[in-house]
């Protein structure tokens, strides 16, 4: 969820851009959103994801119709959408990401463990729980919790699922949840909004527990912002105002989708 290794020249250029307001590039006729066409529960072309609903809310407040630019949220997403000027905002971006200028965060969530409610693991709330030893745990390969699982000796039997995919072609999260329901894995470790949504859609009674007790890096909670182009200071402030004034409605949308919400320091709300 973060990029590494910007060279000094690139970092300096970023600072220079941030000092010049380029918000005149933002459309005044449409609320132009950059989004993944197949990334349920976040966004999809049917516009039924929670980011779609938040986009519709903001468009209503601005008095502009929503206009989408669709591109899979994988390598090249920002370059092909926001940076190319085809759209003006990404509704969901982790705070501190170098590719965009972040607004204030509008929610914080955490990775979570998902297990059947009738299993002996129903009250597990950290990866160091000894009951997880020798079990098969599903985890997204290369994700932050995989590091903690390795530290706890859980990787040997873990089942990995792909991280960066075009979900129009394949959906590792759906495969992981299907494996959990079939008993192929004993637990699933997922980014909270995915865990909450897919557990809620399952025919099985599942428990979703945010992982808030892990020690050491990397952290497992993230503040989620909106992303705009570097330098668009006025546009950022306008979005910050919309977030602040409509936070209750945003929270209600997130709750509808089962997003596990924590405070900005990664503590249970």
UniProtKB/TrEMBL annotation:
It comes from the Bacteria. This is Amino acid ABC transporter substrate-binding protein. The lineage of its organism: Bacteria, Pseudomonadati, Pseudomonadota, Alphaproteobacteria, Rhodobacterales. Keywords: Signal. The keyword Cell membrane does not apply. The keyword Signal applies. It comes from Marinibacterium profundimaris. NCBIfam families: ABC_peri_MoxJ_2 (TIGR03871). Residues 30-261 form the Solute-binding protein family 3/N-terminal domain. It holds the Pfam family SBP_bac_3.
């Amino acid at each position: 969820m973060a990029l590494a290794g910007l060279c000094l020249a690139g970092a300096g250029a970023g600072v220079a851009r941030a000092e010049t307001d380029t918000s005149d590039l933002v459309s005044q006729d449409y609320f132009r959103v950059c989004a993944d066409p197949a990334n349920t529960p976040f966004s999809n072309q049917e516009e039924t994801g929670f980011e779609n609903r938040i986009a519709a809310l903001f468009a209503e407040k601005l008095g502009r119709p929503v206009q989408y630019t669709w591109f899979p949220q994988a390598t090249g997403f920002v370059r092909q959408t926001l940076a190319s000027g085809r759209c003006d905002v990404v509704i969901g971006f982790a705070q501190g990401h170098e590719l965009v200028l972040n607004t204030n965060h509008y929610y914080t969530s955490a990775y979570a463990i998902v297990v059947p409610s009738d299993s002996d693991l129903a009250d597990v709330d950290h990866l160091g729980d000894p009951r997880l030893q020798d079990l098969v745990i599903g985890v997204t390969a290369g994700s932050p919790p995989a590091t903690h699982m390795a530290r706890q000796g859980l990787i040997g039997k873990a089942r990995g699922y792909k991280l960066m995919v075009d979900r129009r072609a394949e959906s590792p999260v759906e495969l992981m949840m299907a494996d959990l329901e079939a008993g192929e894995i004993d637990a699933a470790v997922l980014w909270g909004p995915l865990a909450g949504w897919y557990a809620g859609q399952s025919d099985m009674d599942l428990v979703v527990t945010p992982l808030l007790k892990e020690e050491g890096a990397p952290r497992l909670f993230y503040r989620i912002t909106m992303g705009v182009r570097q330098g668009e200071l006025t546009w950022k402030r306008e979005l910050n105002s919309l977030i602040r004034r409509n936070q209750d409605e945003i929270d209600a949308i997130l709750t509808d989708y089962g997003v596990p919400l924590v405070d900005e320091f990664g503590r249970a709300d």
